Amino acid sequence: MPLVFAGSVKFIDYEYSGYNYQAYDIGNHFNEFAGLNEVDYSHYPDRAFQLQWLRSYLEAYKEHKGQAGEVTDREVEIIYVQVNRFALASHFFWGLWSLIQAKLSSIDFDFVGYAVLRFNQYFKMKSEVAALALPE
């Protein structure tokens, strides 16, 4: 649901609203590039796109917080690693959620199939993401 304040738009997802780790929400956002009805994880953004997106995000974040100084490459790299680690957590979370929904939900949706997709992507990404190291 969009809210408009003084010329800006804020999007709020009331369905699953709650405080979360910054990197989890961004990782989950990147996972959602794959879509829902016809899931295609080849749409997960590549490293170059993520670095550009994250730099812009951090610049806006710092400006909003009134923090001086430019965003460093190290800051971008740190959040890049965190985001991709949390993207794994997002896959695992939504895979488990889907299994629960398969048992409880009356919605006509292939929750088991969706859980399989999420768990498969988790295991596909796991070794690559585990190899990422935070900069010193």
Automatic annotation (TrEMBL):
Q: Which InterPro entries match?
A: Kinase-like_dom_sf
Question: Per the UniProt entry, what are the Gene Ontology biological process annotations, in alphabetical order?
Answer: phosphatidylethanolamine biosynthetic process
Q: Which UniProt keywords apply?
A: Kinase, Lipid biosynthesis, Lipid metabolism, Phospholipid biosynthesis, Phospholipid metabolism, Transferase
Task: Give the GO cellular component terms, alphabetically.
Answer: cytoplasm
Q: Does the keyword Kinase apply?
A: yes
Superkingdom is Eukaryota
Pathway in which this enzyme or protein is active = Phospholipid metabolism; phosphatidylethanolamine biosynthesis; phosphatidylethanolamine from ethanolamine: step 1/3
Q: A GO molecular-function term, please? A: ethanolamine kinase activity
List, alphabetically, the Pfam families matched.
Choline_kinase
Write down the top EC class of this protein.
Answer: transferase
What is the E.C. number?
Answer: 2.7.1.82
Task: Please state which protein family the record places this protein in.
Answer: Belongs to the choline/ethanolamine kinase family.
Can you name this protein? ethanolamine kinase
Species per Swiss-Prot/TrEMBL record: Takifugu flavidus
